[in-house]
Hints:
By secondary structure, the protein is mainly α. It has one domain (4-221): Orthogonal Bundle (Hypothetical protein af1432), CATH 1.10.3210. It contains twelve helices and no strands. Helix 2 crosses helix 8 (128-142), helix 2 (15-35) runs antiparallel to helix 11 and helix 3 packs across helix 7 (99-106). The protein is globular.
Amino acid sequence: xxxxxxxxxxxxxxxxxxxxxxxxxxxxxxxxxxxxxxxxxxxxxxxxxxxxxxxxxxxxxxxxxxxxxxxxxxxxxxxxxxxxxxxxxxxxxxxxxxxxxxxxxxxxxxxxxxxxxxxxxxxxxxxxxxxxxxxxxxxxxxxxxxxxxxxxxxxxxxxxxxxxxxxxxxxxxxxxxxxxxxxxxxxxxxxxxxxxxxxxxxxxxxxxxxxxxxxxxxxxxxxx
Length: 224
């Protein structure tokens, strides 16, 4: 059993990584929604969903956080797949997030061809917001440094996504490609660089104390 102090320490160790990834996905999701012609209210909600999409990971203790190297093992992958469900629970409990945000977070690992999780949804059965997040999340992960590998450059990341294009809604993916090669994307590339250099913490829309409080849990609730 993991002590509560250990849970909090593990969360804090990787909080900066979680925040920088959330900031990047938040910006990408809002911009992509705008590129798709959605109104500002929807874009704002997608920004919120992007910021909070991985909040469920912060309840997974040492299974995901505090890692210095190596990819996730089979047992760790099993726990990692719980994070959309945990994220939905956290956001529902807070009472501060719309159904659009909550369902987008819950389904952001669904693949368009039905091979994702948690519910193996496919095509239009996947909530629209979740399809937007899926595209943005994959790109953000590829262009960011990880404990087990260095980041990929934009062109390589997009090439890798094209190779797995069956996972994405094609309309959304094509809009993403247009956005990624627009001049305004330079702002996103600066954000990527800042995230990889860990200089974005002060600009996070949610601060350490807020995030810790949001995911605070008793040791007995930790799935170990």
